[in-house]
Automatic annotation (TrEMBL):
One Pfam family, short name: Usp
Domain of life: Bacteria
Basic and acidic residues biased stretches: 137-149
Protein's name according to its UniProt entry: Universal stress protein
Length: 312
């Protein structure tokens, strides 16, 4: 781990929310905050043509003002700022490999761009080899609900540390992958996030009744020994969580097993979540770049920041 949280800023309200969230997270974890803006000259679609010097001055001013704002609010956090002379997607993907996490606003300039397949955030998300957290601005909750979602109004302590308020969310919510070998990176991120907040961790496992042709004598024996399908799923979840509970004994864990699709079960459990953590299969050099239906649903509908963690 590098001890660095990197956030991409672009001047939008969602970018500001991402910077604020990343600064608060850096304060919690005792990490460095790195502000980046990826910029290459291109003509702007404006009545008055802006030259390359004007665009560069705008980008430099954006970084300077963002740094001043987060430093004022979180004075204990070391902050650096870099202007990246490259196209945004490859530049941010490269940044994600060097940091503990990359934080982005979940939308760009405009009401719908964050939901479009061609948006910068989604392109970065598909290619990043490290965790990416997507944050919406206050006043832009998913599904039209009137509640803040970026910082949740966390008060700030004397050393820049967020302190719990009476209405602060109390949980980190994590979707636990079905295969044990896929869960490690997701659970590592989720337990660390919960420990940094002093929050409980709700570990969610969704399951469904398998079709008849999927049954085998071995699977039937396992279900019988566990006392049924649901107890079997509860045992599998407990077994996956056990090593991580031993590494993070200070984190209270709530085990949540429910019948249904993973996306539906996770979204229904989001009410008290400060952060939702989901996995996605890392794309190989020749594999299609997909984020998966669970991450896709979370990014569209979760009312809190969403961390997407690559898994094997």
């Amino acid at each position: 781990m590098s001890g660095v949280i990197t956030v991409g800023v672009d001047g939008s309200e969602h970018g500001k929310a991402a910077a604020d969230w990343a600064a608060a997270e850096a304060a919690r974890r005792g990490m460095e905050l790195r502000l980046v803006h990826a910029w290459v000259w291109q003509p702007l679609d404006l009545p008055v043509t802006a030259d390359t010097e004007a665009q560069q001055r705008w980008a430099e001013t954006l970084l300077r003002e963002t740094r001043a704002r987060v430093t004022a609010r979180w004075p204990g956090v070391p902050v650096t700022a870099r202007l990246l002379p490259a196209d945004p997607v490859p530049a941010l993907v490269a940044e994600a490999t060097e940091a503990d996490m990359l934080v982005l606003g979940s939308r760009g300039h405009g009401a719908l761009i964050g939901y479009l397949i061609g948006s910068t955030a989604l392109h970065v998300l598909r290619q990043a080899r490290g965790p990416v957290v997507l944050v919406r601005s206050d006043g832009d909750p998913a599904d039209g609900r009137k509640e803040p979602v970026a910082g949740r109004g966390e008060p700030v302590g004397g050393r820049g540390q967020p302190v719990a308020g009476p209405a602060a969310p109390e949980e980190v919510l994590v979707g636990v992958p079905g295969a044990e070998e896929e869960a490690g990176a997701v659970l590592e991120f989720a337990f660390a996030a919960a420990a940094a907040r002093g929050a409980s961790l709700r570990a969610v496992r969704a399951w469904s009744i398998p079709p008849v042709f999927a049954w085998s004598p071995a699977s039937m024996r396992l279900a019988d020994e566990a006392g049924g399908l649901e107890p079997l799923e509860r045992k599998r979840l407990a077994d996956v969580l056990q090593p991580w509970r031993e590494r993070h004994p200070q984190v209270e864990v709530v085990e949540h097993v429910e019948v249904g699709s993973a996306a539906q079960v996770l979204l229904s459990a989001c009410e008290r979540a400060a952060l939702l953590v989901v996995g996605r299969h890392a794309s190989g050099p020749h594999a299609p770049q997909r984020i998966g239906h669970v991450a896709h649903a979370a990014l569209h509908h979760a009312p809190c920041p969403v961390a997407v963690v690559p898994q094997p």
